[in-house]
# Entry
Amino acid sequence: AARHRLLLDCNIINMAVNFAGIHLGTEGLLLFTLSACTAVSHAGLPARPLEDAEMQLFHVSDPEAKCLDGTIGGYYLRPGTGSDASKFKIHLCGGGWCSTQGDCAYRANSTLGSSSYWPPIANTDQKHYPNQWNIGLYGLLGNDTKNVYENWTSVFVMYCDGSSFTSFRQDAVNVNGQMLWHRGRTILDAAINDLLKVHGMDQATDVILSGTSAGGMATYVHAELFRERVPASAKLMAVPDAGFWVDAIDLTGARRMRNLVIAGIETWNTSKVGASNIPCMHAYQSEPWHCYLPQYIMEHITVPVFVVNSLYDPAQYGTVLGLACGHDLTTCNAKERAQAEQYRNEFIAVVQGTLHEKDGFFATACNQHEETCRQDDWEGIVVQHSSMMDAVNAWYTNSGGNTTHIDCSWPCNPTCNKNYHGAC
# Structure
């Protein structure tokens, strides 16, 4: 019974559901406070059919597609049903970045750096594995009857490289005796190859590419790569969530997000190999960091994009603005709330300045990070008389079109939930 009950001997879920687990390191780079975890053997787990809200783990077939610790990357998949089996929902998992080799070494000993922590079946109901990191099979990826995409083939690409799937170094890096592999782009390429060759994506009619946080950034960065790889006849649209990281000046006058990416590019070796939007890379040859930040890369994305983001995202406050109380605005004083409101207005202006006629925008007034992967948010948050699910579906059904839903000022929206961080 114990092997059914516990597949993650750690409290990693705190990282995903509590923004207090995110802090800025001494170099001003985003780190995740990961609990000390011990991998538990998956040997002997009985094979069984998938139940509702479950996905099966597949390790990619390319042996060179390695997580930071050298284990093989992978993804969870739940096959679609009926006529919707040829329609794919592909989600790129989030989880911050490691911008220095030291940060990556720390990260390698967690579910965000090693596939040894990933259970063979991922679930949301916690019935079989109650202490598992709930990886967010809700919302857009969910298969509940309210979700208009319930019967689509669902794919959750796991994140174990710390670079938004862009890193590539041929050789491992020795960090105080610990060998690190930077193969994020290899993992993503391998996952796409397997989906095409093994899981029928070569016959896909529809593909929604989504991602949250660092996976949201990856959705912007790699949208054109998916356009190149999925069938030309397939309808491809992107729904990045909580991934519009702004190149803004923080409260001290620094540009935290820009500096994070610049440091990351050196660590990940991505300036020429990992980033996949070639027109953007050509436009910014001497400053490739531009091609990670949505406000610059959107100009070079031909795929229709529906931007989902909170206007009061606690991760934005910590990573971009440096607003200490941003994880819970109720603790802010009057000056800090004014700073939060000013950033809200700046954020709206930046996003709207990048949108094309094909793009959409759903901006909530909820003080939380990641919203498409929770059922209550996906179906329950209402902005200008529309839920997130209905707004995305109307945009998708119409094959794009500038659909904009901008919320009022915090704390105006009673449909917001008190969850600071998603699990996806």
User: Anything to note?
Assistant: The first strand starts at residue 8 and ends at 9. DSSP finds twelve helices and 18 strands in the chain. The mean pLDDT is 86.
